[in-house]
Amino acid sequence: MQPLYVAFDVALAALSARSIAVLRVRAPWTSAGWAGTLGYCVAAVVEFGNDALHRPASYVAYAFLLALTIAFVVAGIRDEPQAEPWWWPTHVGPTRAEKRARV
């Protein structure tokens, strides 16, 4: 068992859940990326918290890592808004296009 990895993954899972709650349907691909992050964190907690399940949980974690990467890339291309501030989201921030329009 590796308690530091478990603690980090639990904290990231909480951030992921908060980001999903803030974004909801306003940014579907970004929310999907955060859902993939949440799934990755759960798989990583199992991977690093239970030696017997390390190998199968690592495969699941890599699958979620691939899914969250794809979702965040698509969200970036679509210029979806992000949950802000990054350390504990409270609101939906502007897109890059909205930021450029303000300047």
Overall description:
There is one protein chain. This protein has one domain. The N and C termini lie far apart (50 Å). It is mainly alpha-helical and 103 residues long. The protein has a two-stranded antiparallel ribbon with strand order 1-2. It contains four helices and two strands. The chain is elongated. 73% of the residues lie in helices and 4% in strands. A hairpin with a 6-residue loop joins strand 1 (83-84) and strand 2 (91-92).
Secondary-structure map with pairings?
Blueprint: H1 3-23, H2 28-49, H3 54-78, E1 83-84, E2 91-92, H4 96-102
**Order of strands across the biggest sheet?**
1-2
Number of domains: 1
Q: Ranges with pLDDT <50 over ≥5 residues?
A: none
Main beta sheet strand tally, sense and closure = 2 strands, antiparallel
Helix fraction bin: over 70%
Spell out the helices and strands N to C. HHHEEH
From the spread of the alpha carbons, the general shape counts as elongated
Rg measurement, Å: 15 Å
Mean pLDDT: 92
